[in-house]
Amino acid sequence: MSQLETAMGMTIAVFDQYAKTDGNRQTLTKAELKTLLEKELPNFLSSGKDKDAIDKVFKNLDENGDSQVDFKEFVIFVAALTCCCHKYFEQKGAK
Ligand SMILES: [Ca+2]
């Protein structure tokens, strides 16, 4: 597998690992998302350990308002975060 294929596979695997905590492996509940963020993106939430931060992220991700985050919503979130990282490293490299 290529690097990009591996990255895509890992993204799917991470979602599946946390989404299957309860009976429904198609979606992340707020509790599942919280665990995922704490374990997989510890730096992302380091500033906001409070419940509000998770609530806000969850609300933003849950675009259709069904209190579940599906894979599409999760991928959009990962893509947005990746864009932020890309911008950050671009700026760093520019100086
Ligand atoms: Ca689930």
Automatic annotation (TrEMBL):
Keywords: Calcium, Metal-binding, Repeat. One of its GO terms (molecular function) is transition metal ion binding. Transmembrane segments: none annotated. One of its GO terms (cellular component) is extracellular exosome. GO terms for biological process: endothelial cell migration. The keyword Glycoprotein does not apply. SMART domains: EFh (SM00054), S_100 (SM01394). Residues 49-84 form the EF-hand domain. InterPro entries: EF-hand-dom_pair, EF_hand_dom, S-100_dom, S100/CaBP7/8-like_CS, S100_Ca-bd_sub. PANTHER family: PROTEIN S100-P, S100 CALCIUM-BINDING PROTEIN. This is Protein S100-P. The gene is S100P.
